[in-house]
Design brief:
Number of domains: 1
Distance between the termini: 14 Å
Order of helices and strands: HHHHH
Helix content: 55-70%
Number of helices: 5
């Protein structure tokens, strides 16, 4: 998928317009409105309205979090496979020591710099931000949910 701007550390974060600008605001508005109605007209109907609006908002948030978690697991698998091909045979057993956030951050490193950066992450305990800011040749990921 081509993008108008080249992806980098400064612009790789992504918002999902349908979630962040439609579903979440509607859900929050529904919660606020239902609480307002509960205060103005207490009763079983207004209590049910609060419960339903909170439940629907939680459902929407959980559905998104599940998709992100599955995506993170796939990225973890892809990066372990990629590193098993890129790292020297003697260091391959250490791949399992990389944390999920480290593996997710390493996906942005080019094949040329991924092995050295992975070893730095293992030896120095780099955070995902430290890994991302250390990348010289950014490998874009335009498919993030």
């Amino acid at each position: 998928m081509a993008s108008a701007t080249t992806q980098s550390f400064s612009n790789h974060g992504r918002l999902d317009p349908a979630f962040h600008f439609v579903l979440a605001p509607i859900g929050l508005a529904a919660i606020i409105l239902s609480i307002f109605l509960l205060v103005r007209q207490p009763g079983i109907g207004s209590i049910l309205g609060v419960l339903l609006s909170v439940g629907l908002f939680m459902l929407t948030a959980k559905a998104r979090s599940y998709a992100l978690k599955v995506q993170d697991r796939v990225i973890r698998l892809e990066e372990r496979l990629r590193l098993s091909m890129l790292l020297p045979e003697a260091t391959r057993p250490r791949i399992v020591e990389l944390t999920e956030p480290q593996l997710i951050a390493l996906r942005f490193a080019s094949d040329a710099e991924a092995p050295a950066l992975a070893m730095r992450a293992l030896n120095e305990g780099l955070t995902k931000k430290q890994i991302k800011t250390s990348i010289q040749s950014w490998r874009a990921d335009y498919f993030r949910v």
